[in-house]
Q: What sequence folds into this?
């Protein structure tokens, strides 16, 4: 475990509060985990025991956290035996939870025009970051008038009921009106992309939608942009290319298979460029959030 994270990762018996099922084997799990909820940040994740019969834990990104109520939410798609067992857990069941883990996203006040790009199971950290930026504005005294825009892509049905957005976003292609209702309620504009012909969605990759929006901005507006992204590695690589082309900073949250998730096994190490040259960094505790230019 990284020395900086000692005392910040907690082992809890988390109680299942609710488990909502969506199309294509997707679930939103809410659990009572007060210590994790109090310390979770956008980009951090939890390491869960899915079932007593399955010893290996599964890492799941945290989508929302309520420190006052003591719960966290995670979105996942059933892939394999472990997550299939997790999907069978019901309200009142207990899970062993280790978290929050990882270096989170860090938004900079001098770049208030935040572009959040999420693909598939990379959507949860974007929802979490959007909520935190929204809360900062509502609380007052925020260091910047954050202007988040959330773009999400999926080739399977989204894990929520989409609806036409009530928020206008200049620079978004005509007809792209589908949004995440929860974000609309917060006053955070969002738009969806898919090649699966879903109503109101941009008919292409979410990175193409991001490209279209970035092209609509002038030099002064681009000077306020910072990109945050989570999703499949090819999507992150294209997002990094976009950031480089438009000359804006970009942070990415990487997805890797993990065993211990606390830095002991180094099984999730990736090569990262540093001022001293290439170095192997552990996605679990050195990340999962990295500067995009150092990875791609």
A:
């Amino acid at each position: 475990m990284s020395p900086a994270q000692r005392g910040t990762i907690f082992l809890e018996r988390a109680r299942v509060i609710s488990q909502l099922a969506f199309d294509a084997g997707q679930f939103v799990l809410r659990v009572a985990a007060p210590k994790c909820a109090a310390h979770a940040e956008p980009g951090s994740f939890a390491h869960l025991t899915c079932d007593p019969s399955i010893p290996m834990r599964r890492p799941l990104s945290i989508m929302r956290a309520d420190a006052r109520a003591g719960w966290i939410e995670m979105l996942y798609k059933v892939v394999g035996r472990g997550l299939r067992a997790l999907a069978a857990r019901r309200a009142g069941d207990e899970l062993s939870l280790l978290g929050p883990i990882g270096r989170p996203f860090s938004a900079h006040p001098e770049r208030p025009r935040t572009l959040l790009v999420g693909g598939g199971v990379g959507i949860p950290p974007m929802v979490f970051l959007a909520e935190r930026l929204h809360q900062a504005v509502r609380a007052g005294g925020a260091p910047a008038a954050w202007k988040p825009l959330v773009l999400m892509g999926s080739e399977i049905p989204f894990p929520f009921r989409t609806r036409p957005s009530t928020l206008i976003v200049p620079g978004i292609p005509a007809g792209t009106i589908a949004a995440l209702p929860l974000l609309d309620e917060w006053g955070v504009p969002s738009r969806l992309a898919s090649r699966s012909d879903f109503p109101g969605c941009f008919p292409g990759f979410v990175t193409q939608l991001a490209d279209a929006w970035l092209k609509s901005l002038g030099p002064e507006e681009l000077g306020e942009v910072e990109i945050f992204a989570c999703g499949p590695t090819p999507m992150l690589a294209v997002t990094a290319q976009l950031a480089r082309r438009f000359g804006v900073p970009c942070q990415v949250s990487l997805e890797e298979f993990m065993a211990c998730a606390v830095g002991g096994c180094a099984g999730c190490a990736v090569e990262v460029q540093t001022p001293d040259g290439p170095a192997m960094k552990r996605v679990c505790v050195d990340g999962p959030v990295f500067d995009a230019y150092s990875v791609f």
